[in-house]
Design brief:
Layout (H helix, E strand, L loop, with lengths): L49 E2 L9 E5 L4 E8 L2 E6 L10 H7 L7 E8 L9 H8 L15 E10 L2 E2 L5 H11 L7 E3 L2 E2 L3 H10 L4 E6 L12 E5 L2 E12 L7 E10 L2 E8 L5 H12 L16 E2 L5 E6 L12 E6 L9 E2 L3
Parallel strand pairs: 1-11, 6-8, 13-18
Antiparallel strand pairs: 2-9, 2-10, 3-4, 3-5, 5-6, 6-7, 10-11, 12-13, 12-15, 12-16, 13-14, 16-17
Amino acid sequence: MTKRPRKTTKPLLIDEELPLKSGKVRRRDPKQPELPFDPMPGRIEPCLAKLVAKPPHGEEWSYELKWDGYRLAVHVEPGGVRIITRNGHDWTHRFPGIEAAARNFVPETLILDGEAVVFNEQGIPDFGRLQNALGTSGRGPGKLPAGNAILFAFDLLYLDGHDLTKMEYSARRHLLEDLLACRDGGIRLSEEFDEDPDELLRHACAHELEGIIAKHRDRPYRSGRTGDWLKIKCIQSDTFAIVGYEPSTALRGATGSLLLAARYRDGWKYVGSVGTGFNHDEARRLKKQLDKLKTRIPAVTVPGKNLVMTGPTLLAAIEYRAWTHTGTLPHPSFKGLREEADWAEVYRVSDH
């Protein structure tokens, strides 16, 4: 026997003749996503990589090269482009090539996290050349633009009204790859490598790169050194204060070596000297700069004769292999002067 159709409790069609009535407004379910756009932040404190001796293994980790340059956040906003350094300084005018590339993006609002680098003739990132391009090597008082710098973007923090920092890294990476697909020029994608991290590190070191970065695929973007991102270096590179110099005995009017100090408790600790990495012209320029900073009250006690002590004002980027058992830098090499704004980067020696 055929059953009658079930009678519905509500009409399937709306009678257009009836007046419209507003329903009861319900509070939004907090478990559901918020639909309104997120306000664009003026600045996001960067996620920093924690230094480890060996790369982690596992499918939860993503790997890419570590770029030797300046960490930047590129803000594409309705009113233009802002390029912000790791310490919050506006350096838009100092990276005209990156700024021009950012203006070509179709999305009206976005924030890219990346590293600005300058390559040498061999196609290797050269931090010294980047410093020279920015006018931080002592050649003149001005701040010069680095027009040939390239931004390798490795994260996407904000896109068209949506804050992406709460998303896991794998989802942010997918959006970043779509955004930068087939892009060349001043802004490029930092490539992700799907291979054994030990082999990747070996290849990076063989090509004189700084090392590799490992990122946890399931973590959101968290500011600070949380351990979500890890860095594994071929050669250590840190910032130290110059607290004096030893005059050159072979080149008149030049430094022979620079005396270096690291932060220690509430003061400074001598960590050795560096006499390589700068040419004759740089050695003369360094002496002129340091002679203006001479002091009778040295920041540290340094053994030796004919030393010129200075206040810890100039900062130096130094490469080295590892720490000795005496607490000094073995085989250090001078890479260039750092910005005065980089005081937060000065190496700190622990009590252990």
